[in-house]
Amino acid sequence: MASHTLSAVAASAGIGTGKIFVVSSPDLSYEAGTCNDAPAEKERFEKAVNTFKEKILEKSDSLKEKAGPKEALILDRQLLLISDPSMSDEMLRLIAEGHSAEEAVDSVCNIFIRMFSGMDDELMCQRAADILDVRNSMLKLLLGLKDTDIASVPKGSILVARDLPPSLTSQIVRENINGIITEEGTRTSHIAIIARAMEIPLVCGAERVLELAKDGDTAIVDGDQGLALINPDREELDKYSELFQKRQRKIARLSQYLGKETVTADGQKLSLFCNIGTPEEAARVLEQSGEGIGLFRSEFLFMDKKAEPSEEEQFEAYKKIAEMMEGRPVIVRTLDVGGDKDIPYLNLKKEENPFLGLRAIRYSLAERQRFSLQLRALLRASAYGKVKIMIPLVTCIEELRSVKSMVEDIKTELDGQHIPYDKNIEIGCMIETPSASLIADILAREADFFSIGTNDLIQYTMCADRGNSGLSYLDSPFHPAVLRSVRHIIGCGKNAGIPVGMCGEAAADPLLIPLLISFGLKEFSVDPSSVLKCRHDIHKWNKKDADELTEKIMSLDNIDEIKKTLAD
Ligand code: PEP
Ligand code: MG
Q1: Which of 234, 248, 300, 446 has the fewest beta carbons closer than 10 A?
Q2: CATH of residue 229
Q3: pLDDT at 391
Q4: Is residue 529 in some structural domain?
C-alpha cells in the first residue's frame, strides 16, 4: 500500500491515529421537469421543512452538549434560514408555478449560495456554507435519502470527508473519533470551530485525500503541523506514537495548574481571565479555573436571533454570568457590531469600508435608545456580582465621556425606581485602534481600566484586514509597531494607576508572555481551553529574565528575527 503525506491546514491541534472512515457525499441528483400537482408538491415541501426543523433542533441540542452553545448556534442559524421568507416564499412560488420541491429548494438555495460565496468576506462565505448545508439536508429529505451514519463509526476512526457540515458533525461521538481530515475548508470553517471545541485533531484542505484514502486504511492526523499521513510506514507510526505519548504527558502535567494562582517564577501575582461568547460558557471558565471573565462578547446575545434581546433578556444573561462567577470580575463588552459582524435585524447601512465605518461604540452612540437598554441591563446585573462595562473600538475621549454620562443618567433613573446596582461600577476602554493607543495617556485619566484588543489593534496598526489570509504575514503581534504600541498602552495605564489587561488572541501566545510580563501587563484574558497552558507559561518567567529578553527584542527590527529570538 502506497503511503502519502499531505500538507494541509492545521485547524485543530493534537495528534490522532486510526482507521479511515470515508464520509461519502450522497447522490443528490433528481429528475428535473414540470410537476402537475402543485398542492401535493407544496405539502411534500412543507413536510420536509417540518422534519428538517425537528432534526435541526435535535442536532443542535446534541451539539450543544458535545461542543458547546456557541458552536450549536451554527445549527440554530439554519432554522432561521429555512424560515426566512426571502427563501421560503420564493421556494413556494416556484412550486406554485409547477416546479418540483427539489427544484425549488435547489435553485433558490443556489442563488443565495452564489451571492454569498461571491463576496470577499469570511462571514458571508460561512453563510454560503450554511445554505449549502440546508440545501443538501432538504434534498436528502425530499429524496428519501438517509443521513450518513457518523454516530455509529467504530472507536479509533479517522473521518475523511470533502467537508463536514454542522448537520453531520452533531452526530460525532467524541470517544470514537481520533481525528478528521477534510479536502476542503480552512481554520475558520464550521468543522474547524467544532473540532477545536471538541478537542479533535483536524486538518483541512488536504488535497486529493478522497482519491487516496480508502475505508479501513490507516491514517495519522497531525493537527499541530498540518499534515495528513495516509498508510504511514512503521517508522512514521512509531514516531507519531511517541509524539502522542509526549503530548498526553504534557496535558497531564498541565492539570497540576488547575485551581492554582497565576504567579510568575518570582512570585508576582497576575490575573488569568477568559473570553466567552455565551453565558453557558462561564461553566467552562470555572472548570478550567479561570479567575474571571476578561471579555464577554455581548454581541453573541444579539446574533442569530430574529429580533434584538429585550432589556430583561439581557439582564438575565448578564446576571447569570455574574452569579456564576461569584464575585470574580465579569467584564462585559458592549455591543461590538459592524465590521465583520452583521446582525440582520439591526439593518446596518451598507458601507464602502465597514471595518472603518459605523461599528462598535460608534454604532451604539448613534443608536442611544438601544444602547441605553444594554447599559440599564448591565447596571441592574451589577447588583449580582462584579460586572464591569467595557467599550469597544474607542478612538476618542468623547466616546468614553458619552458612555459615562449615559451611565450616570441611568443610575439616577434606577435610584428613582429603587432598583439596586453597583454604584462603583467600573467603565473601561478596549484599546484596539492606533488612535486609542496614541492617546492612551489621555484615556487613562478617565477610564477605570484598559483591555488591549490585539486582534483589531494589529489589523488597524498594520492596515491589514484580519480575515484576509493573503496578508497573514502582517497579522502578527511581533511586528515592532505592534510591540511598541502594546508597551506604550501598558505604560500609560501604569502611570495612571489603572489595570491593563489583554483580551486579544495574542494574550495566549507563549512567545509573547515574557514581553507582556516585562511591560507590566496585569491581566491576561484567553480562551478557556488555554488557561492551564497560559498559567504554566507565566509560571516559567521571572521579571529579571523577562526584562533582559524584552530589551533585546525591542532593539530588533522585524517579525522573523523577533520570533526567532523569542523561540530560541
Ligand atoms: C480584539 O479585537 O482583540 C478583540 C478581542 O475583539 P474581537 O476579536 O471580538 O474584535
Ligand atoms: Mg476587536
Answers
A1: 234
A2: 3.50.30.10
A3: 98
A4: yes
Nearest atom of ligand 1 to the alpha carbon of 505: 3
Q: CA torsion angle for 93, 94, 100, 101 (degrees, to 10)?
A: -50
> Which residue puts its alpha carbon closest to atom 7 of ligand 1?
455
Q: How far apart are CA 535 and CA 523, in angstroms?
A: 12
Query: How much is the pLDDT for 149?
Result: 81
For residue 503 and ligand 1, the question of a CB distance below 6 A is answered with yes
Give 192-206 pLDDT, tens digit per residue.
Answer: 878 887 889 999 999
Shared domain for 364 and 509, answered yes or no, is: yes
Judge if pTM exceeds 0.90: no
Q: Pick from 97, 122, 143: which residue ends a domain?
A: 143
Residue 244 falls inside a structural domain: no
Catalytic residue positions, numbered: 190, 503
Tell whether the model's pLDDT for residue 68 goes beyond 80: no
- CA 117 to CA 327: how far, in whole Å? 45
Which residue's C-alpha comes closest to atom 5 of ligand 1?
Answer: 504
- C-alpha distance across the termini of the chain, in Å: 40
Which stretches of 325-472 are DSSP H helices?
Answer: 361-366, 368-381, 397-416, 434-438, 440-446, 454-462
Domain count, the chain: 3
Q: Are residues 412 and 472 in the same domain?
A: yes
Is residue 122 pLDDT above 80, yes or no?
no
pLDDT in tens, 167-182: 788 788 889 999 999 9
Residue nearest to atom 9 of ligand 1 (CA): 297
Domain hosting residue 43, numbered range: 38-143
Instruction: Provide the residue type at 264 as one letter.
Output: T
Question: Are 300 and 445 part of one and the same domain?
Answer: yes
504 ligand 1 Cβ < 6 A: yes
Neighbours of ion ligand 2 (CB under 5 A): 432, 453, 456
What CATH number did the domain enclosing 100 receive? 1.10.274.10
pLDDT digit string, tens, across residues 272-325: 999 998 887 899 899 999 999 999 999 989 876 778 999 999 999 999 999 999
Q: Band of the pLDDT at 31, cuts 50, 70, 90?
A: confident
For residue 339, the ligand 1 atom closest to its alpha carbon is 10
Strand 427-431 vs strand 386-391: parallel, antiparallel, or unpaired?
Answer: parallel
